[in-house]
Amino acid sequence: ARRLSKVLQLTLAVIKPDAVAHPVILEALHQRILDNNFVIVRSKDVVWRRQDSESFYAEHSGRFFYQRLVEFMSSGPMRAYVLAREDAIHHWRALMGPTKVFRARHTSPATIRAQFGLTDTRNTTHGSDSVESAQREIRFFYPDFCAEEWMEKEEPSFR
Ligand code: RTP
Ligand code: MG
């Protein structure tokens, strides 16, 4: 018999300081995670020091938006989730929508950034963009997290 199974994937999702600052938006985003069949594996509120922010976004160092990005991401509390579902990385990024808020509002008005984003920097959420970044970013926020335990798990299936 053919075996139907869906492998769970992990992603790191962050609700950025602009959205955490507004309790109604924070709650709406939390609800959207639940409504989209993600399992919340870990969740915590964190405040970054400037050096955490610089290190997390090191790949963007030198870009014109780097300084304001680093400053913004260490400006107040964030919520960091490890989320699991099938195709989690893609699904979370699809929910977020395009990075640039103007573009998001015009091309994908139902996305998180279209609805809640303030500017291209203060754009409500982050999501890992690949399996490699998910691993790095999960380790960044949760140094003791054992990804292997989760990566191999499959949803229950009938044969
Ligand atoms: P993210 O990494 O946050 O999930 O978003 P992304 O892949 O869609 O965007 P990326 O190009 O990786 O940029 C990282 C974050 O930098 C800020 N940014 N500001 N023009 C700007 O002012 C600008 N461009 C990017 C955003 O906060 C973006 O999420
Ligand atoms: Mg990115």
Automatic annotation (TrEMBL):
InterPro entries xrefs: NDK-like_dom, NDK-like_dom_sf, NDPk6, Nucleoside_diP_kinase, Nucleoside_diP_kinase_AS
Needed cofactors: Mg(2+)
Residues given in the record as ATP binding sites: 16, 65, 93, 99, 113, 123
Record field: catalytic activity: a 2'-deoxyribonucleoside 5'-diphosphate + ATP = a 2'-deoxyribonucleoside 5'-triphosphate + ADP
Residues forming the catalytic site: 126 (pros-phosphohistidine intermediate)
Enzyme class, UniProt record, top EC level: transferase
SUPFAM superfamilies membership: Nucleoside diphosphate kinase, NDK (SSF54919)
Domain of life according to the entry: Eukaryota
Gene Ontology CC terms: lamellipodium; mitochondrion; nucleus; ruffle
Entry EC number(s): 2.7.4.6
Keyword terms, alphabetized: ATP-binding, Cell cycle, Cytoplasm, Kinase, Magnesium, Metal-binding, Nucleotide metabolism, Nucleotide-binding, Nucleus, Transferase
Keyword ATP-binding set for record: yes
Gene Ontology BP, a term: negative regulation of cell growth
GO MF, one example: nucleoside diphosphate kinase activity
Location(s) in or outside the cell: Cell projection, Lamellipodium; Cell projection, Ruffle; Cytoplasm; Nucleus
Domain named Nucleoside diphosphate kinase-like: residues: 8-149
Similarity comment: family membership: Belongs to the NDK family.
Biological function: Major role in the synthesis of nucleoside triphosphates other than ATP.
Name of the protein in question: Nucleoside diphosphate kinase
Organism: Zoarces viviparus (Viviparous eelpout)
Lineage: Eukaryota, Metazoa, Chordata, Craniata, Vertebrata
